[in-house]
Design goal:
Protein name: Aliphatic sulfonates import ATP-binding protein SsuB
Helix content: 25-40%
CATH topology of the largest domain: Rossmann fold
Largest sheet: 6 strands, mixed
Number of domains: 2
Enzyme class: hydrolase
Order of helices and strands: EEEHEEEHHHEHEHEEH
Structural class: alpha/beta
Strand order of the largest sheet: 6-7-8-3-9-10
Radius of gyration: 20 Å
Shape: globular
Keywords: ATP-binding, Hydrolase, Nucleotide-binding, Transport
GO molecular function, one term: ATP hydrolysis activity
CATH architecture of the largest domain: 3-Layer(aba) Sandwich
EC number: 3.6.3.-
Bound molecules: adenosine-5'-diphosphate, magnesium ion
């Protein structure tokens, strides 16, 4: 059953000097327990779409339904994990993880139990009493992930959460996130410009194209677990998505050449 329905979303940004249509006719459905990656080149509107789902940005037209209820503002049924961790530096790790649950008025005992469970999952047991400034970038993002998972919202929205990390740290976190999702079956929308991340994590990959941002294709990833980047099926899907995206780049370059010729 689909938990989230995105119906014909359009978004146009209007400023004094120009009007930009950023999203055009976006239609998507997400099933409970599904991990969806939205992939597309920089500027194609991924963050805008995620912000609309989060309720942080208003669509120009269209509707979004979560569990059958139309949404238009932020709510506790959705949690967002950004590229920058947005942790509270003056709180200890454990208090950061418990923060969202405290807002939800979960009892002290229950939130401590849950916080420790998720700190365990992100491999940060033993760091409960550390301060954020004592942690590396990767560890901070683990804390943010534990905090986001612990509130148990209906859907978790992630916007390039690991893109500020070095490659090695990022790959370890991708593997851990994938394993956590296989066991917890959280419903997640994960935005990235990185095709490898998308194929590694997703049940289904939504490929976007730009100007205006549209859904170009939806590709189901049926790769055996554990996913191996060196396997033929993995390489074939990554290639397929990259060639879809480069077709767009070529078309855009062609259009630009044509415009350039027209101008001359
Ligand atoms: N607040 C805004 N005002 C005007 N234009 C915006 C605003 N936010 C985003 N855009 C435009 O929308 C397009 C898509 O941006 P974004 O959603 O950030 O893309 P992505 O996350 O895929 O890189 C960009 O061309 C950007 O200039
Ligand atoms: Mg973005």
């Amino acid at each position: 059953m689909s938990i989230l329905k995105i119906n014909n979303i359009n978004k146009t940004f209007i400023s004094k000097h120009k009007t930009v249509q950023t999203l055009k006719n976006i239609n998507l459905e997400i099933e409970a327990g599904e991990f969806i990656c939205i992939v597309g080149s920089s500027g194609c509107g991924k963050t805008t779409l995620l912000n609309i789902v989060a309720g942080l940005e208003k669509a120009t037209s269209g509707n979004i339904f979560l569990n059958g209820r139309e949404i238009s503002s932020p709510g506790i049924d959705r949690t967002v994990l950004f590229q920058e961790h947005a942790l509270f530096p003056w709180l200890r790790v454990i208090d950061n993880v418990e923060f969202g649950m405290k807002m939800l008025r979960i009892s002290k005992k229950d939130r401590r139990e849950k916080a420790l469970k998720y700190l365990d999952m992100v491999k940060l047991r033993g760091f409960e009493n550390s301060f954020i400034h004592e942690l590396s970038g990767g560890m901070r993002q683990r804390v943010a992930l534990a905090r986001a998972l612990a509130v148990d919202s209906d859907i978790l929205l992630m916007d390039e959460p690991f893109s500020a990390l070095d490659n090695q740290t990022k790959n370890i976190l991708l593997e851990e996130l994938h394993n956590i999702c296989l066991t917890t079956k959280k419903t997640i929308i994960f935005v990235t410009h990185n095709v490898d991340e998308a194929v590694y994590l997703a049940d289904k990959v939504v490929v976007m194209e730009s100007s205006p941002g549209r859904v170009k294709n939806v590709i189901y990833i049926n790769i055996n677990e554990p996913r191996k980047r060196s396997s033929l099926e993995y390489i074939a899907i990554v290639d397929e998505i990259i060639s879809e995206m480069s077709k767009e780049t070529e078309n855009k370059a062609g259009e630009k050449d044509y415009e350039h010729e027209k101008d001359n």
